[in-house]
Amino acid sequence: MDAFTTAPACAAMLDKQDPIALLRDRYYVKEGQIYMDGNSLGLCSKDAEEAVLRVLSDWKEYGIGVWSGAPTNYFLYQDILGERLSRLINADPEEVTVCTNTTINVHQCVATFYHPTSERYKILIDELNFPSDRYAVASQVRLKGYDPEDAVKVVKSRDGRMIEEADVVAAMTEDVAMILLPAVLYRSAQLLDMQYLTKEAHARGIIIGFDLCHSIGAVDHDFKAINCDFAIWCNYKYLSGGPGAIAGLYINRKHFGVMPGLTGWQGNKKETQFDLLPDFEPVNNAGAWQTGTQPLLSMAAIEGALKVYESTTMGAIREKSLKITSYLMYLIDECLAKYGFSVGNPREDSRRGGHVALEHDDAIRINEALKARGVVPDFRAPNVIRLAPVAQYCSYTDVYNLVGILVDIMENKEYEKYSSKRGTVA
Ligand SMILES: *Cc1c(COP(=O)(O)O)cnc(C)c1O
User: Fold this and answer.
1) Residue 426's pLDDT band (boundaries 50, 70, 90)?
2) What are the C-alpha distances in Å from 157 to residues 111, 160, 188, 341, 355?
3) Long-range contact pairs involving 148-151 (C-beta distance under 8 Å, separation at least 24)
4) Is 265 helix (H, G, I), strand (E, B) or coil?
5) Per-residue pLDDT tens over the stretch 84-98
């Protein structure tokens, strides 16, 4: 257990002892702003900017030759990025690629691995996952002629915050063909025991995959140990790969050779791709799940974002993330509980991701008051302010100042002048 105090000197000391404190200088952190929303959109790094400008300049210089004539082999860029991303989750380089967006990657994985029979035709999801995943699963089930009301089985939460692993396992009945769950829940930050759930699913012959949107770049997953069938994620949250960045896809190597559900020429063997043959020949790696041409400019931002990770380790990032969120929870308990705030995420390190779910009955108005004071948080209905002190660019002093601002807001009732209506983009 870390020994924290509420004194400002504690924050200063933690910053001084932070082994990755210098990474902050590589990001565009705005003076006077406390950025706590890296779980929605990570900040831009100078490395990402540089890589995007390089691709732009290569495009100017080479025209169509950018794909094959530039110093970087952009024709194989998705494999290069896949290899570098694979290190973040301890997967094999060939098991990871970048393509489309998270939602389409859910479609792709369900289309690939969901082969319903009259006995086994259900897809198991949870009640709390981000809705886009659920919309995609429901539409795939409909395409196969089933009614989502029947074929999409939903594990309920007992308290509206967490999903109990035991309830998921109990729901793994003989009619379940496939499971899709988040690694970290977007509202409560709960981290599921992916290795245990995969073992239980496989023992029952069920395909299982995870959505890493809220964990990639923050949690040091070990995919060699987890051994799930597939995973999907976006690269624009903790990873800072840029707004709307092309997404990530992991396919367990045991499935190489399986025909992808959605096929396109970019998934073809590279040697024969430009023969433009009528029959599709999938490449023998995760790249087979590619469809159309990849957006180079978006990939460049990811290349830059990954450079920051390559100057440290996922272990060091996870360690700081756990420590800085512990510090935030400590300050919430000590300084904010008396104003009606509470912590809505799990407390155990093994069960939580990179953000703190701060709960308050007046959360929506307090969130507005925070924004007026230069903090960038986000609000999730009905009562959660998500605060993500991202390890790469947030300091312990940021967290200390944030809590000081919250105390002010409550003492001076600054939130009372805001409405409790939510904006269009929350
Ligand atoms: C952020 C997020 C998404 C977003 O999907 P896009 O296709 O990138 O818009 C999907 N699922 C989860 C769990 C998310 O957290």
Assistant:
1) low
2) 27, 5, 11, 22, 20
3) 150/122, 151/116, 151/121, 151/122, 151/123
4) helix
5) 999 999 999 999 999
Measured CA distances, 192 to 122, 347, 359, 409 (Å) = 21, 13, 21, 34
355 alpha carbon – ligand 1 mean position (Å): 16
pTM above 0.70, yes or no: yes
Q: Which atom of ligand 1 is nearest to the CA of 186?
A: 15
Dihedral, CA of residue 345, residue 349, residue 354 and residue 355, to nearest 10:
20
Please give the structure tokens belonging to residue 63: 């025209």
In tens, the pLDDT along 269-327 reads 988 888 888 899 999 999 999 999 999 999 999 999 999 999 999 999 999 999 999 99
Which residues, other chains included, contact 289 with Cβ-Cβ below 8 Å and sequence gap of 6+? 97, 99, 108, 112, 249, 251, 260, 262, 267
In Å, how far are 368, 401, 413 from 408, measured between CA atoms?
A: 14, 11, 8
Using DSSP's 3-state secondary structure scheme, residue 266 falls into helix
356 pairs with which residues across the strands? 387
Tell me how far the alpha carbon of residue 40 lies from the centroid of ligand 1, in angstroms.
9
Question: Among the atoms of ligand 1, which is closest to the Cα of residue 129?
Answer: 13
Q: Which of 415, 331, 328, 424 is nearest to 373 (CA)?
A: 415
Q: Determine contact, residues 213/192, Cβ cutoff 8 Å.
A: no
Ligand 1 pocket mutation pick from 234, 298, 425 by most atoms within 8 angstroms of CB: 234
Which of 37, 98, 101, 103 has the most ligand 1 atoms within 8 A of CB, as the residue to mutate? 103
Other C-beta atoms lying within 10 Å of the C-beta of residue 14: 21
What residue ranges line ligand 1, CB within 6 angstroms? 101-103, 129-130, 132-133, 182, 186, 211, 213-214, 234, 247
Q: Which residue has the tokens 């807001």?
A: 409
**Atom number, ligand 1, closest to the C-alpha of residue 214:** 15
pLDDT for 369 equals 97
Q: What is the Å distance from ligand 1's center to 133 Cα?
A: 7
Centroid of ligand 1 to alpha carbon of 103 (angstroms): 6
